[in-house]
Amino acid sequence: MTTESQNVDTHEIAKFEALASRWWDQESEFKPLHEINPLRINYINDAVSLQDKKVIDIGCGGGILSEAMAALGAKVKGIDMGEAPLGVARLHLLESNLEVDYERITAEEIAAREAGQYDVVTCLEMLEHVPDPASVITACAKLVKPGGHVFFSTINRNPKAYLFAVIGAEYVLNMLPKGTHDYAKFIQPSELNNYARRAGLEVENLMGMTYNPLSKIYKLNEKDVSVNYLMNTHKPA
Which of this chain's residues are annotated to bind S-adenosyl-L-methionine (predicted)? Predict the structure, then answer.
């Protein structure tokens, strides 16, 4: 179900609310997120040094990426519409001794309030869980300063992605809870590119993220964006 006034799928929120207590358990359903996080953070930090940058993490969940960016010296705000994951994220700060400002608010709402205030915007593994990804991308473009960067990641939409991200990850390898992903919401790189350009962003780089089920190792591979991929964009100065 989608709320009329917000770009939110309440069913998607409920799925992650139910799992919130296990967000920081590295052997839980969130194990893949913990395993890919070093790849994500290195991709971002290599493109834009996060030290002293003002960053907002859209769809931050329990704060795995937000904390990693804070650990590299960024001033981080994390937003999400799930209160339970945000509660877990705030609690984990007591263990990590890091500083992250968490708030329950949509990307569109905070873009109206804090337009042009961030050096870096991240929106990872979130676009495939909202009814209108283009609206979120537009909000990200509003939030970033001219010359700043916006990073996205999502899942490609093709038979291979369905086989790996849905059948393989959810039903064969049991890496994710069944029903985590809706194939119809997957986004092809060309679509994400178009959304970004319409929002006034210029695409700098597209990077695939691959998984080997035998070695159980994730890698970045710019030549393979067939399943998971990241995109680095910037707003012209």
Answer: 40, 59, 80, 124
Q: What is the pTM of this model?
A: 0.91
What is the DSSP secondary structure assignment for residue 90, as one 8-state letter? H
124 is in an annotated binding site: yes
* Residue 57 annotated as binding site: no
> d(Cα 25, Cα 21) in Å, to the nearest integer?
8
Distances 64 to 24, 118, 132 between C-alpha atoms, Å: 8, 19, 24
Q: What is the Cα–Cα distance from 38 to 184, expressed in whole angstroms?
A: 28
DSSP string, 175-218: -S-TTS--GGG---HHHHHHHHHHTT-EEEEEEEEEEETTTTEE
At 119, phi and psi to the nearest 5? -75, -35
182 is in an annotated binding site: no
Q: 124: helix, coil or strand?
A: strand
Residue 78 marked in a binding site? no
Alpha-carbon distance values, 66 to 20, 60, 70, 120, 176 (Å): 16, 7, 6, 12, 21
Q: First and final CA of the chain: distance in angstroms?
A: 39
